[in-house]
Specification:
Layout lengths: L3 H26 L29 E6 L1 H12 L7 H4 L4 E9 L2 E8 L3 E8 L2 H9 L29 E5 L26 H13 L7 E5 L9 H11 L3 E5 L3 H5 L1 H10 L1 E5 L10
Parallel strand pairs: 5-6, 6-7, 7-8
Antiparallel strand pairs: 1-2, 2-3, 3-4
Helix pairs in contact: 5-6, 6-8
């Protein structure tokens, strides 16, 4: 038997959805000007002004051939191609189909050079549908950020962002399979210098509208960067409200003094990862 609180929660959810429906309709006809916050040069969009990409399934979307991307990256590292091909050409871009099959949501795509790729996007179709229906629509159009966000066809078009992620290093003190960054597995070390880190933090905090209120240091394993504590301390100094680390926690577990130093420098969150082999885990 369901607990009474479940019925209360359901009732509140229905009431909130109904109230929002009427407010949204009223807001669409309201002639009041949109609010312009002091961190932006443009007004925030009203709910009826926001746009959404095509959602649901089956549908077609844009994607990348993973093999084309790896080959282009290697050619750039080897000096065979200039990195500007990423700005001026649509390297690896292909169309993909979002489909449902056997109770799962899949992305199916075919590269004319490397063949067919299939990726599982969700194992729960109802939850995936809920996530898409919860999308509120695009934020204000990006502006004043051409200096930072010139990424060719991948350039950010909408929104402010909320968390700036900086990969301090691609080194790691573990060898996990899979790893979302392929740490220790790409054949080279990429590690930001102190000047690189300061430039990224300074540039991002100076843009209006302010895109990043928080910064998350990632990797690889960010805590093994020689500049980790300095980066945390500097981020707080220049005005980021929250400083976080996506970490396996090993360095903190090894040394209480290091963990204490990170907290004293201004680290607010440590994002740890716990993996399981199924939904029950």
């Amino acid at each position: 038997m369901h607990k009474p609180i479940k019925y209360v929660e359901k009732g509140l959810s229905v009431a909130a959805n109904g109230a929002w429906f009427f407010y949204d309709r009223f807001n669409a006809f309201s002639q009041r000007p949109s609010f312009t916050p002091n961190w932006s040069d443009k007004p925030l969009l009203k709910s009826h002004e926001k746009v959404k990409p095509p959602l649901g399934w089956p549908r077609e979307t844009d994607s990348l051939c993973p093999t084309c991307v790896r080959e282009a990256r290697q050619d750039i590292l080897d000096g065979k191609k200039d990195y500007k091909i990423l700005l001026n050409e649509k390297v690896g871009e292909i169309k993909a189909q979002i489909v449902e099959r056997d109770g799962k949501i899949l992305m199916v795509k075919e590269c004319p050079v490397h063949g067919v790729f299939e990726d599982v996007m969700a194992i729960d179709t109802e939850f995936f549908k809920h996530l898409e229906e919860s999308f509120p629509g695009s934020d204000i159009r990006a502006h004043n950020d051409a200096k930072l966000h010139n990424h060719g066809s991948s350039t950010i078009k909408y929104g402010r962002g909320s968390v700036l992620t900086i990969d301090l290093t691609n080194r790691c003190n573990m060898m996990c399979d899979p790893c979302f960054m392929d740490a220790n597995q790409v054949g080279f070390v990429h590690e930001l210098s102190w000047d690189d880190i300061k430039t990224l933090l300074d540039n991002a905090i100076s843009i209006k509208p302010k895109r990043q209120m928080s910064v998350q240091f990632s990797g690889g394993e960010p805590t093994i960067s020689p500049y980790f504590l300095d980066a945390v301390r500097y981020a707080r100094k220049v005005g980021y409200n929250s400083v976080q680390a996506a970490t396996n926690g090993i360095e903190f577990a090894k040394s209480y003094d290091f963990a204490r130093a990170a907290a004293d420098a201004g680290l607010r969150y440590a994002y740890l990862q716990f993996d399981g082999i199924g939904n029950a885990a």
